Amino acid sequence: MTFSNKSCLVLATIFMVGILISSQQVSSQECGGALQGLMNNCAPFVGKMGPQTDPSQACCDAVKAADVPCVCQHLPPGIELIVSLEKVVYVAKFCGKTLPGGTKCGSYTIPPSSAFEIEE
Description:
By secondary structure, this protein is mostly helical. The chain has helices spanning about 5-25, 25-30, 35-45, 55-65, 70-75, 85-95, and strands at about 105, 110.
C-alpha cells in the first residue's frame, strides 16, 4: 500500500493535533487560547513534509490573533518531529508577525536577517 503526499500530510496533521492537544492544554490557556486556531488553520503550511508555501487567509487571521512569542515559548515537546520551525517563522512573517532575530521558537533560533518587530 502506498501513501500519496496528501495522505501523509493528513496523517502528520492528525498526529500533530494529537500531540498538541494531549501534551499542552496549559500552553493554550497561557497564550490566550490561540494554539487551537493555529493548529486548525496553519498545520498544512508548517508541516515538515512538502515545500514551503504561502499560508491561507484563515491561517494568517489565526497568526494575527495569536501571541506568537508566547506560542513559541510553550511549544509541546516532540512537536519539532512533525513541524518545521523554519516554516513557522516564514508563516508568521508572511502574515505580519515576525519575531526579533535571536528569539528562540522551540529549539530554533530566529536568524537576524528575517527579523523585525512584531506589531501587536
